[in-house]
Amino acid sequence: MRRLAIVVQRYGAEITGGAELHSRWVADKLRGRFETTVFTTTALDYITWENHFPPGVEDIQGTEVRRFPIEGGRDMEAFDRYSRWVFNEPHRDADEEHWLRMQGPVSPALIEAIRREKNRFDIFLFFTYLYYTTAKGIQEIGDKAVLLPTAHDEPALKLRLYNQVFAAPSGFLLNTKPEHDLINRRFDLGHRPRSIVGMGVDLPGEMDVEAVISRFDIPQPYALTFGRISYGKGHDLIFRHYPNDRTDMHLVVFGFTEMEIPDNPQIHYLGRVSDEERWALLAGSAFTIHPSLYESLSLALLESWGVGVPALVNGDCAVLRDHIETCGGGRYYRGGHVEFIERYVELAEMSDAERKRMGEAGREYVMSNYEAGEVARRYGDFLERMIDYGL
Predict the structure, then answer these.
(1) pLDDT, tens digit, for every residue of 336-373?
(2) C-alpha 66: how far from its chain's center?
(3) Could you count the other beta carbons within 10 Å of the beta carbon of residue 330?
(4) What domains sit in the chain, N to C, each tagged with a CATH number?
(5) Which candidate, 64, 30, 19, places its Cα nearest to that of 384?
(6) What is the band of 111 on the pLDDT scale with cuts at 50, 70, 90?
(7) Which residues pair with 39 in a beta bridge?
(8) Is the link from the previous residue into 221 a cis peptide, with omega within 30 of 0?
């Protein structure tokens, strides 16, 4: 059995989104085809990088996970100030190196471990280009490395330090064509192998949707936004400009919040919910809202379509707009709150039959492109080809 090392900044069942969830999905789906070890840190919180888990080795659902301590944490206020300066003012390479260390998570022990054990593994898969663990680790591995960048059109991508990061790996796994096109414009990928694979959607079995909706006493029909609720994900626009005066439809919100939910009689925040409740609330919604500007895939959008629910997305995000334009599974808005309100009211006033038609178009798109077993096969095939022919 081939030996695969996954390098990612955080890892664990407690982390339910982003590149971290993506890495765990890949590790789980490739079990039996690869002998996998995860190299990660002791952090749980990505904002502070505080050491949370004990360092050492543990087994998570059959995958060996090796955790390494972080030296210092992250002062988010100081980091944000420094980021604004380094993104907008002339600076030296040393300033970018300082920015990378301020961002974290700084774990020299992790970098030393993968350097020391490089020859024990057939291939290394690094998740997300952004953090210290990839920026330093991938340059130690180089010819045995594949990068899954989860790249967005964001200021950090323009920093010179990432030229070396994208020059190091032998191949790339991408989430979407817009992500591929973005990094291909930004960096010289040359003829190195690459594949657009995304992440598979594991759909639920039978759900008692009405029972869950009744449990929360939610007015129907309702729109839904969920996941990490934050300014960075664009939820402030939704909450500031929710069109109470234009529609009677209520908005349901659940997930981990990093911002205050406004006191609005039409907005219902449920906190964190169980997996069963999550899927039932999703399946029972009229449509879902995905306001993030920075996405390389958006599993939340694919899950919405997987249960036949249409979506309203931020069309200034090229990935989200491409999803909508490809399958017709909803609407997108651009340029801020005016168009958001118009598209929201359009979906709210639409007939159930029209919303169902869009939701089914989205479901067909997901089943054709993101069925879990097929996506896992594409991962395994690409990594094996890299081992046999590409390295």
Answers:
(1) 899 999 999 999 999 999 999 999 999 999 999 999 99
(2) 22
(3) 27
(4) 2-200+371-390 (3.40.50.2000), 209-369 (3.40.50.2000)
(5) 30
(6) very high
(7) 7, 66
(8) yes
